[in-house]
Amino acid sequence: MNIFDDLLKLVKDELELKNCLQDLNRDIEYTFKECYDWCFKSNLSYDATILFKIDSLCDFLQDELNTGHWSEVPLSIRQAFSGTSYIKALIILKRPSDPINILQDALKCIDLGLLLGAPLKDNQDLLTQCATMLSKLLSQSHPKDERLNTINKRKSYSDHSNNFNSLPGEEICTLECPSLETFNSKHFVPQIPAKLQGCITHWPASEKWLNVNYLLKVAGDRTVPVEIGSHYTDESWTQRLMSLKDFIQTYYLGNSDTVGYLAQHNLFDQVSELKDDICIPEYCGLSRDYENSMEPDVNAWFGPKGTLSPLHFDPKDNLLAQVYGTKQILLFSPKDSEYLYPHDDKLLFNTAQVDPTKPDLLKYSNYCKAVPYKCLLETGEMLYIPPKWWHHVIALDNSFSVSFWWQ
Ligand SMILES: O=C(O)CCC(=O)C(=O)O
């Protein structure tokens, strides 16, 4: 398969790749180098022992990645996992099997490397480039009749305004594509939420993503994390890795009893083609601390009608862009935090116990002192959520949003 040679040519710094397990024990490093050398030899044919060895290395590193808190995993382990995933994908490509199967397995392996690993320094784009090539080849190899006959038509969405009008709370103000100066002085500096219209209508995503077949073509075989369960504070809630195609068929278009939500995932660093369909809003150039400002964290929130993000807050400024579908959002100022009963738990300190859509006033009696704000966020609109503002989000339609968290 030529794809093997094409992927091999993507390595910019062979030495860095070959030594990417040097911080681990000698036996492990030696096994990796053996697998590496096998790939870089010419005219090799499939070798089950080599695949077994690289498989064991990946398993070992995955165990290391899953030990302790994610933020404490050493960078060297994550980089080792990236390098090992790359070599494993190459070895898989030599397996004598159905070509589509092989390409899917190799891509899955690269995606795991992208999701759990960290880029090597001098081979920074190695996995992203591999994934793009494999995904392109796969989408050309799929039979044409696999296309789904589903287009999200904007006009087919129902009118949610009646229900929304009956919700308690003051509606937050709406601005038509404000100038940077207006946004800065009236909202960013005083930290007041606002709904912004006319800011994302030029995004290619506004048209392209309405067609599910487009998403399937560019990313159907990509592995993505999916939240399963009604919401993340629910006991039965869990997360699973699956292909975007399986997610769309089972949870997005299917009639699954359980909710599946591709939530808070940086799909755009993983699938670079999708990054070209959106633009970073110019408002993200504003900062409260220019010396320490950073590129925004861009996340995808893609799911069926009914997804729910419980009342919580985030530390950064946020622009939540609604590419299509409608979301009902309830907001509360940080000043009202004590009336929302944040969880005591270390991991859930930013999540409220009270459900603002059906508050239990016997249990949470001070909730009545909190002042709710509301927003019906519709296709093409963007919501500015200042840092630490509480927000509760329900998708009223099938929906695709993109959030930009920045500081
Ligand atoms: O859209 C959602 O479900 C939640 C979005 C959110 O919480 C955020 O952007 O911070």
UniProtKB/TrEMBL annotation:
> Per the record's keyword annotation, is Oxidoreductase included, yes or no?
yes
GO cellular component labels: nucleus
Alphabetically list the UniProt keywords: Iron, Metal-binding, Nucleus, Oxidoreductase
SUPFAM superfamilies from the UniProt entry: Clavaminate synthase-like
Recorded hits in Pfam families, A to Z, give:
Cupin_8 (PF13621)
Q: Where in the cell is it found?
A: Nucleus
| GO MF annotation: an example | metal ion binding
InterPro entries reported in the protein's UniProt record: Cupin_8 (IPR041667), JmjC_dom (IPR003347)
> Any keyword Transmembrane helix?
no
Q: Name all JmjC domain ranges.
A: 269-407
Q: Which cofactor does it need?
A: Fe(2+)
Which SMART domains does UniProt cross-reference here?
JmjC
Q: Which protein is depicted?
A: JmjC domain-containing protein
Q: Which organism is it from?
A: Ignelater luminosus
